[in-house]
Amino acid sequence: MLVEALALSAVLFTIGVVGVLTRRNAIILFMCIELMLNAVNLSFVALSTLYGATGQVFVVFTMTVAAAEAAVGLAIIIAIFRHTRSVNLQNINLLKG
Amino acid sequence: MLANQFHSLFYAFGFYLFGLVAIASAVAFVTRKSPVAAAMWLVNVMFCLAALYVMLDAQFIAAMQVLVYTGAIMVVFLFVIMLLNLGHPSELADARGRWGYIFATFIGLVMLAEVMALNRANTIERMIPPDLAARAAAAAATPLAGGIIGPVAAPLFNEYLLAFELTSVLLLAAIVGAVVLGKRRTDAR
Q1: Which of B:51-110 have CB within 8 Å of A?
Q2: Distance between CA atoms of B121 and A47, rounded to whole angstroms?
Q3: Which residue of B39, B54, B86, B176 has the lowest C-beta tally within 10 Å?
């Protein structure tokens, strides 16, 4: 089942990348990043069946970083929404020059 | 022997079932226009991944997945979506133009082709030392010392103790950052 799990992880990561490239809603972009983190977690867990439980330790760290990232990212999105009344990335072009 | 064969067949059926449901839910998640519907499909993906973690003998990680990802992170996402009231039709038309779709399709096909090429070349099989699979099978046959959590907790609190402690600093910084960014500025000068 290792090969299948790694293939599933790659497919989910690809779907996350395509989502980041096609969507313009900032919150959905964040959720696509969560999907990519989940795909990487799946490959960590799949390889931990062969190489020992260290991979699962890394999954715990990934989850912590994802939680911190979600908290700060959503706070940034709320601040942007207060400023521009929108989370559409088309309207957020302050750094475009 | 027959029971063992039936068990492995059932295992493979469950694995493919949850894998296909995860892929279908991920596709639905990327294509939904409404953010709430997308979040619910992503929750479905995460539940399927938790089931796969159980099948890959990572029960603790599966519980963490349900508790932290679907229970905490996705609830925060839904909370923000509903707080900002993002269901307006003007907000829903968020897909990029034709070039964005073409570029994304190209990138997706290239990445999937890479996976297929790796699979054809049997890279994963060659990556694994031949005796390692036998050792993993032997380790799976003997009951683990410390149950399910012991093998995860031992490296977490011995080898990676410094990283674990630094994680608490990271979480503190994230809490402070979220409060500072989310705070309404009162001293508007």
Answers
A1: 52-53, 55-58, 60-61, 64-65, 68-69, 72-73, 76-77, 80-81, 83-84, 86, 91, 94-96, 100-101, 103-105, 107-108
A2: 19
A3: B176
Q: Which tens digits make up the pLDDT trace of B41-81?
A: 999 999 999 999 999 888 999 999 999 989 899 999 999 98
Asked if residue A9 lies in contact with residue A46, where contact means CB atoms within 8 angstroms, the answer is yes
Find out whether A76 and B181 touch, Cβ atoms under 8 Å. Answer: yes
B2-142 carries CATH number 3.40.50? no
Using CA atoms, how far apart are residues A93 and A88, in angstroms rounded to an integer? 10
Place of tokens 């699962």: A56
| Residue ranges of domains in chain B | 2-142, 143-189
Whether the complex's predicted ipTM is more than 0.85 is answered with: yes
Please state, as a whole number, how many other Cβ atoms lie within 10 Å of the Cβ of residue B163. 15
Contact with chain B for residue A33, Cβ under 8 A: no
Q: What percent of chain B has pLDDT over 90?
A: 38
Nearest Cα neighbor of B26 from A18, A42, A74, A3 is A18
DSSP-assigned letters across all residues of B7-68:
HHHHHHHHHHHHHHHHHHHHHHHHH-SSHHHHHHHHHHHHHHHHHHHHHTT-HHHHHHIIII
